Amino acid sequence: MEDQVQVFQEFLSRKGLKLTRPRREILDAVFGLHEHFDAPRLHQTLRGIKSDISMATIYRTLPLLEEAGLIQHSLRASSRDVYEHIYGHPLHVHWICSRCSKVQETPLNSLQDQLQKEAEGINFNLDEVNIQVRGICWKCRNSENEIQ
Amino acid sequence: MEDQVQVFQEFLSRKGLKLTRPRREILDAVFGLHEHFDAPRLHQTLRGIKSDISMATIYRTLPLLEEAGLIQHSLRASSRDVYEHIYGHPLHVHWICSRCSKVQETPLNSLQDQLQKEAEGINFNLDEVNIQVRGICWKCRNSENEIQ
DNA sequence: CCTTGTATTGAGAATCAGTCGCATCTTTCT
DNA sequence: AGAAAGATGCGACTGATTCTCAATACAAGG
After folding, report:
1. Which CATH number does the domain housing residue B135 bear?
2. Per residue in B49-107, pLDDT tens?
3. Which residue among A26, A40, A70, B133 has its CA within the 20 to 30 Å range from the CA of A34?
C-alpha cells in the first residue's frame, strides 16, 4: 500500500524536488480516482474533499507524475489532456466506441512481445505503450438498426 | 492521382453537401503535407500559399475529412488536435521519443491480425487502430551520457 | 531558534485552441 | 436570372493551459 508515494518521493529527491502537501494531495487524489481524468476534474475532486489547490499547481504536478511513471497520457476522445494512473496496472488496449464513446480495456498480452521485438529492430528503448482502437462496440452494433 | 478528391466529392454528395473552393483547398493542403498537422498549422500553410480561409472553416472541414475516411485523429504529444492523412497509407505504429519528440513510423504488420482476433473476442467492430509507443530513440540513447 | 538560498505556491493575467451565431456569399437547380 | 439550401468569414465567447510574480514554505547551517 502507498507504493506510489515512495516512487514519487524517490523520483522527486532524485531531481532535488520536494514532496509537498499539495503534491501529496494531488497524488492521493489521482490514485483515489479509478477512471480517466483531466486537470479540471482533478481540481473539482480536490476542492470537494478539502484543499483548494490551484489549477496552476495541478498543471505543474501532472507532468511530474508522468515523468515519474505513475500516470500516463491517455488517449482522448475529447480535446482535453486526459490521464490515467498506471503504476501497478498492466498495459492495456483501449477499445473506444465511436458511437457511444464508452471505453473498454483489455490487457496487452502477446502484443507486447511483438512490439518489444519491433522496438529492438529499430533500436528503440521502449517505455510506454498506448494502443487505441476505434470502432463500434457490441451494444451499439446490436442497436444499430434502430437509429441510423 | 487525385483519388482523394473523388472520395471526398462522393462523400459530400452522399450527404447533400458541396465541394466548395475552401474545402477543396483544405483537402489539397492536407494531402500536400506529409506530416502530422493541426488546424493552426493548416491555417498557416494555406495562408502562405494563397487563400485566407478562416479557422472556422478549417475546424468545420476537418471532421468531414475524418468522416470521409481521408484523415484520422493522430495521437498527440501536445494538447492540440492532431491529424494525419491516411487515405492510401497503411496503418502504422508511432514511435515517439520522449527526449527529442521526434516521431518515427513503422507498419502495423502482424499486430493488426492479433488486434483483429482480440476484437472478435469481445465482439468489437474494429475501424481504426492507433498505436503509440514512447521511449528513447537510438539517437538520444547514444547521446544520453553527455547530457544527463 | 534565526538566517539564507532555493523551491513552491496561488492568483490572476495572458494565450491559444476550438465553438458558435449571424449576416453575407455561393452553388445548384430551375 | 431567381430561389433555396448550404457555406463562409468575422468576431465574440468558452474553457483549457501557460506564464508572471509576489508571497510562502522548507532545508541546511550557524
Report:
1. 3.30.1490.190
2. 667 899 999 999 988 988 887 887 765 445 556 677 666 666 778 787 766 656 677 88
3. B133
pLDDT 10s digits, B117-142 = 889 988 888 877 778 787 888 877 77
| B80 and B131 part of one domain | no
Q: Which residues of B touch A131 (CB under 8 A)?
A: 115, 129-132
Three cell numbers, residue B107? 507498419
Q: Do A83 and A94 sit in the same domain of this protein?
A: no
**CA dist., res. A27 & res. A29, Å (int):** 5
Q: Say what angle helices B21-32 and B55-67 make with each other, to 10 degrees.
A: 70
Q: How far is A88 from chain B (nearest CA, A)?
A: 18
> B55 — contact with chain A (CB < 8 Å)?
no
Residues B94 and B79 in one domain: no
Distance from residue B118 (CA) to nucleotide C15 (C1'), in Å?
A: 43
In this prediction, residues A33-38 reach a mean pLDDT of: 81
Task: Tell if A66 CB is < 7 Å from nucleic strand D.
Answer: no
Q: How many CB atoms lie within 10 A of CB A147?
A: 7
Q: Cell numbers of B133, please?
A: 509507443
Do residues A79 and A26 share a domain?
A: yes
CA gyration radius, chain B = 18
- Residue B95: which domain range? 90-148
Check if residue A112 sits with its Cβ under 7 angstroms from strand C: no
* Whether residue A77 is found in the same domain as residue A127: no
Residues paired with residue A133 on neighbouring β-strands, in sequence order = A95, B129
* Residue A121, CA distances (Å) to A95, A125, A127, B103 in order: 27, 10, 15, 16
Range name among A28-32, A94-98, B113-117 with the lowest pLDDT average? A94-98
**Number of A–B residue contacts, CB under 8 Å:** 113
